[in-house]
From TrEMBL:
Gene Ontology annotations of biological process type: regulation of DNA-templated transcription
A GO MF term: DNA binding
Name under which the protein is recorded: TetR family transcriptional regulator
Record domain HTH tetR-type: where: 7-67
Residue ranges: DNA binding: 30-49
Top-level taxon of the source organism: Bacteria
Record's keyword annotation contains S-adenosyl-L-methionine: no
Length: 190
């Protein structure tokens, strides 16, 4: 059965826009520059998205939904939250070269409270935290699970940021492995 998303011209165009932004960044890219970069016209971008802000909203929603689904899948497939976290880290690290710069650039838009980035603010605080919390609730109290989820999310973001700057995947993987072992010992001893 064909993927319904790719059957619709707007969704096909959005896929191209996300890929272009992952390669080139958002910065102050105009709709005309973007249109030329993805092989369409400014008119078609405006037709499908309305404005640059609405286009950025669609990009954020697409990227965040894909990551939320990946996290849910890893949590559902693993009974051990540390295993789910390790698998999710591998997924993020594997895509970091193209994903991380876009993720952090759009995160800064959310920090500046750009209206089109409001979805990202929600995903960064609610969706990912709830996924990690759900995983930890399998082995500890809800309150403690929420604290561990926030700690793990913050650590993962920091290591991802470091890896995006340095390109040192081995050091990032080692840091995540050490942190995971620390969390496992903390959970086991309480």
């Amino acid at each position: 059965m064909p993927d319904k998303r790719t059957e619709h011209p707007r969704e096909v165009l959005l896929d191209k826009v996300v890929a272009w932004f992952m390669q080139h960044g958002v910065l102050d890219t105009s709709m005309r520059t973007l249109a030329a970069g993805v092989g369409t016209s400014n008119r078609m971008l405006n037709y499908h998205f309305g404005s640059r802000e609405q286009l950025l909203t669609a990009v954020i929603e697409r990227v965040c939904e894909a990551e939320r689904q990946a996290l849910e899948r890893f949590v559902d497939e693993a009974s051990d939250p540390m295993e789910a976290g390790a698998r999710y880290w591998s997924h993020i690290a594997d895509t970091a070269e193209v994903f991380a710069p876009l993720f952090y650039e759009l995160s800064s838009h959310a920090m500046y409270r750009k209206p089109y980035a409001e979805t990202l603010r929600t995903v960064l605080t609610d969706a990912w935290l709830s996924g990690f919390t759900q995983a930890f609730e399998r082995i500890t109290t809800p309150d403690r699970a929420a604290r561990l989820a926030r700690l793990c999310l913050a650590m993962g973001r920091g290591v991802l940021f470091d890896m995006a700057l340095t390109g040192d995947r081995a050091a990032a993987d080692a840091a995540i492995k050490d942190f995971t072992e620390l969390v496992r010992r903390e959970v086991d001893h309480s």
